[in-house]
Amino acid sequence: MTYENAAEGALLKDLYSGRNDNLENTVFAMLGPDGKKRLTMTGRSPNSVYGSGSESAATMARAMKRHARRYGKSSDTKSTLTRSTEQSPAVPTVANLRLALNVASCENRPLVIVFHQEARSRRQLETNLGEVVWKKLLVGRSEYVVVDEPKALATIAQLRNDPKPGIYVVRPSTFGDRGRLIASIATDHKGTELAKELDAAFSKYRPREKIRGTHVATGQEIGVKWETQTPITDSRSSRKSRQGRTRRRR
Amino acid sequence: MNTTTMLLGSVLLTGALCGQQTDATAPEREARSDAATGIAWFGTWDRGLAEAKRTGRPILLISAAPHCSRVPGMW
After folding, report:
1. Helices A75-84 and A56-72 meet at what angle, rounded to 10?
2. Fewest CB within 10 angstroms: A6, A70, A130, A236, which?
3. DSSP A175
4. Which residue ranges make up each domain of chain A?
5. What is the pLDDT of residues A59-87, one digit of tens each?
6. Domain A87-203: CATH superfamily, name plus number
7. Which residues from chain B sit within 8 angstroms of residue A106, using beta carbons?
8. What pTM value is reported for the model?
9. Number of A–B residue contacts, CB under 8 Å
């Protein structure tokens, strides 16, 4: 995420920096599996590389297929892929609960929290989760985060006091600063049982209707402000933020 | 321009796009992760890169900031 990790920020700025040679809010790139080789031009968005016309999505899709085929044909890659299918990818976690709640709110999805204070048990929970979260039934339906400290759960209403280890499904608030429990799953549930419980919890989630202008105006009015981990360096973003503050003072 | 942005992620162009064929049986394929036949999104660079290296698949990277004019809850 832009402005949320200094090392990622340096990498992003190296991939693409705007007219003022600063990291901008968004970065788009297609890279080789080593994370270094650039397969296309980089830019602020796919539109900046493929255009915004009616054919741009199709052009991008063709490029993606071309790159995928290219790597798919490599004999080294094939052996890697054969191995890879024997093991599920890692759980696609967000770095911390504060950020994960916000991202889940932005995405209008539930958040799954893996909580255990003991490292080995925490890893086991994550492994159990990794075996099911990429299944068609569940993929793309929630965000994920791993928490090891009880006090980190203070923003989740039902988990403030003496939370038990487990997997929790949470509904993020409108501004992603708090959460409410949708379901809790025992630590010994895994496989099909775990998948069914997650599916049931996700099905209880009702997305909020959010209108950009109203959301931002309300947030500014009540003083909700996101503090980034690194300074915002996109000049267009700073200008718009100042305009918002000016409007509020009128 | 909109100050909102989308989530960072690294996305892996995976099996279906790659057109990969392996020697697995149908039930084995069925049992496998669907991430092997689609696009898998990751929320951190480290995990996305690790997966790209593990599978040999290319990366589609989109980074964004989780706030709009500093208001969270909206890209």
Report:
1. 90
2. A6
3. T
4. 2-80, 87-203
5. 999 999 999 889 875 544 444 444 444 56
6. Glutaredoxin (3.40.30.10)
7. 7, 66, 72-75
8. 0.83
9. 246
